[in-house]
């Protein structure tokens, strides 16, 4: 059972690490930029939201495909 989730788990781990690295880079650039604290907070909030959406859109297809595959297998076993 766990073997089916190997690829989605690896994809999630890699995407998570890349999201954390990207977030740290973006926040560092925002903190070191010119502008008021209000602008920096607003930009960092938008950047965090963008990274989160990128993470979800990257990882979701792996999990959806795996769930569909498992559902098809279960339905085929049930119909036998």
Question: What does this 3D model show about the protein?
Answer:
This protein is mainly alpha-helical and 80 residues long. It has a domain at 14-57. 88% of the residues lie in helices and 0% in strands. The chain is built from two helices and no strands. Helix 1 (6-32) packs antiparallel against helix 2 (37-79). The longest helix has 43 residues, at 37-79. It is elongated, with a radius of gyration of 19 Å. The mean pLDDT is 92.
How would the blueprint of this fold be written?
Blueprint: H1 6-32, H2 37-79
Helix pairs in contact: 1-2
Assign the structural class, choosing from mainly alpha, mainly beta, alpha/beta, alpha+beta, or little secondary structure. Answer: mainly alpha
* Rounded Rg: 19 Å
The rounded distance between the terminal residues' Cα atoms is: 20 Å
| Count of alpha/pi helices | 2
Tell me how many strands there are: 0
